[in-house]
Hints:
Largest sheet: 4 strands, mixed
Strand content: 5-15%
InterPro entries: Glutathione-S-Trfase_C-like, Glutathione-S-Trfase_C_sf, Glutathione_S-Trfase, Glutathione_S-Trfase_N, GST_C_Tau, Omega/Tau-like, Thioredoxin-like_sf
Protein name: Glutathione S-transferase
Family: Belongs to the GST superfamily. Tau family.
Distance between the termini: 30 Å
Oligomer: single chain
CATH topology of the largest domain: Glutathione S-transferase Yfyf (Class Pi), Chain A, domain 2
GO molecular function: glutathione transferase activity
Keywords: Cytoplasm, Transferase
Number of helices: 8
Amino acid sequence: MAGEGDDVKLLGAAVSPFAVRVRMALHLKGVSYQYLEQDLFDKGELLLATNPVLKKVPVLIHAGRPVCESLAIVEYVDEVWADGASLLPADHYGRAVARFWAAYIDDKLFPAWISILRAATEEDRTEKLEDALAVVGPMEDALVQCSGGKDFFAGDSVGYLDLALRCNLFWFKALREMFGVTVIDASKTPRLATC
């Protein structure tokens, strides 16, 4: 396996869906790595040295070189450890579609559920939930279109877009338990509800 003997470290935080996304990719590719939990309120020297611009997790350090931003890291992992199934679709159009929806998740879905978490009042939370539901609807359509009727966006196996979405799901469960809100509702988004 390419890069098999290389030193691999991941700077992350258990609460970060973006770090979870990278951990999922490393696991799927069978990459051994050292996980280094970061304190996001008291950022350490290694995090600041390896991601001096954004100063956030995740950061993958491979053979002493940092790679930042979770989607870029997932693509890097997919290319460096290319043995086995690829996380990205094989065809150019499929890759473009997967990248579009992954960016949609990060640019629209993540801020939508974070706004529910940060809402100061029940009224505000209800409004933010409606915004989140409007964002989730197109994801249901994307799953139907991309999956070909199978369980994952990539069809029979977990792929790039599955990682992009599924790393957020543990927070959806937390929102339900904390505030009684359901972001993915089986009556409105039945395919996503099975994720």
